[in-house]
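Supplementary Data S3. Sequence and structure tokens for construct A.
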Amino acid sequence: MIVASLAPLRGHVCAARKHCHGLASLMAMLFLVLFSTLAIGFYASSTMSAQVATNDKALSRADAAADGGMQFVRYQLGQITVPPTVQTSGIMDAVAQQLATQLNGSANMKGHSVANQNGTIYVPASNDWMMLDSTLGMQFRAIITQSGQFLVVTVEGCGVNTSLKKAIRVQFQKAPRAGAILDYGVASQGTITTGGAATITGATDPTKGSVLSADMTSPTPVIIGGPMVSGDISMTNPAATAVIGAGTSVGGTSNPLQIPQHIHSGITAPTFPVVDTSPFTAYATNAYVAGSSTLTNVYIPPNTNPKFTGGVTINGVLWIQSPNVVTFKGGVTINGVIVTDTTGAFDATNNQINFGGNVSATPVSALDPSVYGGLTKLTGSFLLAPNYAVSFTGNFGSISGSIVAGQVSMTGNASGTVSGSVIGLQDVPMTLNGSSSITISGTGTTNYPSGLNFGNFFTPLPGTYVEIVPP
């Protein structure tokens, strides 16, 4: 009876077990699908993360390449010198020419050449890249255009994958270049000759009594017959030699075996200044009156050719308009500056300034600013006469500023101290004879002479850095 009664129960148990086996299979399949889905998701996520990381790395390198490329272009634009005579319309040609001199033929350019292509300069080319880091594959290219007085530089950077790029843009402005020529005591585009007892010395630093000739035709552009040149002698002509008299001291020695150490040929020619006297002439508002012994902010009209035989005092600016031959036979006191106009060509016959007597000078900075206004801030220049032949035969005391003229000659007992440089702008001889002597209390570029321009380089304009969509 007991066995008979259990039979239905066994049937139910077997049915339940069959049901449980079916549910377990279903659950196993569900978990299999779930884990497969998760595995696929993890794979996709990992693949995506790896791709994102790869792209981030590529973009980071592209960003660094763009910044590095901009620094490269910044350096190159900082090395050029655009002559001050170049007009706005000629800036791109001038920039392209100088960048070509610096870059063409270098491995960076990969055989390309810098040129102004219809107002655009490409470095290295419009369809190529300049390698910045070959290990990481970082590279860049630059596009330079012009906007008024400014240059607009766009730099694209990328890594190995050139489709992932970053681009930045910066405006560059012109900045005046300091004149390395001011580091020389006496400099001339032509030959330089001393004779008699003439000397060129540094006031407190003997090296300031240096000489530079940029003449490229004479085999002996520097002839020192006087007893001393306290600094070195430099010549731009690589084939030139200097002629040094017996017993003459150069660079602190009169030993013939040591003097050659202080003579240099084939040096890089410094930029000679372009003279702009307009900041001074704006103050010269009073016409010259014949017979006047005191000239305050005076201009001398063309063809006046005055001769000052007695003492004369110049206050502020004396502006000599061309052509003119101006002669000071007596003593002259200059409380300010003498300038000429800058038009026309050099004319040693019809454009002359001759100092036959003693010269006493004080700078414009010593003038009363309440009377002379902004003129007192135009410091560093004593005489600016680019198209004139200037001669000194008398003592000129101490001059606080540079002497810059087409031609300079000193004879007789012309002696004095110049707080600046003596510069001859024309390729004509500069001579110092008799007992003349120049003592250079050189200031280099620390007292930058007003009215002189040595050209421009380009520097970033603050606040113009911007990231842009790559072109």
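Construct B, processed identically:
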Amino acid sequence: MLKQPATYAEQIAKLREHGCVVSDEAFCEEILSQVSYYRLSAYFLPFRMADGKYRSGTEFSRVYRFYELDRKLRSILFLTVEEIEVFLRAQFSYYHAHKYGSDGYTDAINFNSRHDHGNFMARVAETLKNNDKVTFVQHHMNKYNGDFPIWVLMELFTFGMLSYFYADLTICDQKQLAKDLFGTVPKNIKSWLHCCTVLRNICAHYGRLYYRVFTAIPAGLPEVDKTAERKLFAVIMALRQLYPNTGKWNNEILPSIAALIEQYTEVIDLRHIGFPENWEDIIQK
């Protein structure tokens, strides 16, 4: 049987019953009405004991600070992923078009043996259908009989589709792009792309980053130890590897993260996100 809905007063009572200190009921009710009890409950995880109660002294206002930290950090990282996504669209489409032609993606021979071309083209068709009101899509439908050059089509690719596209390139093409763009090997690129896809989806759906165990583990990052490989620090390291502008990373993104952590230094526990004490030195490109 499903749980029955609770009033804000009942939700506050439940928080107290679990050991949460609610000093300002009006503030607590306001936040519950804006964020929801269910969403905030995930931010109590660092304070939860084996019996489901919260550790002594767990204050609602402090837990809300974790939520605010998470929200602001998510914003910084989402914009960072966006820049990587745009960069990869430009680079992948340029490389593929100049090697195989503007419509080379329509020929299965230009991909590796594991590539399911029928599924790929079906996903392309679905992407076009879902964007059939977009001006440039209508333009190519009307003027070019629905034929799209790779550099136009790729503007509609999600990060997941970009990752899928790279993984299905020939081994030769994977190696060339990995070397030219990032000075590494395909295995690492696939891993980092997967990490970024997971991060992007979490951010796009306003998911929690703090105290999260990530499903993807980035490869080829000796700076990330075993204890941090499934935490936020590892994912940010993957972002660093894919980010195309070293100066902007060091002078804009890194300082933004550092300033945010400084702002919330009284509540944050770096271990919860896998950050070592010298994290700023390690993350710098």
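The chain has two domains: 8-59, 68-283. Residues 68-283 form one domain.
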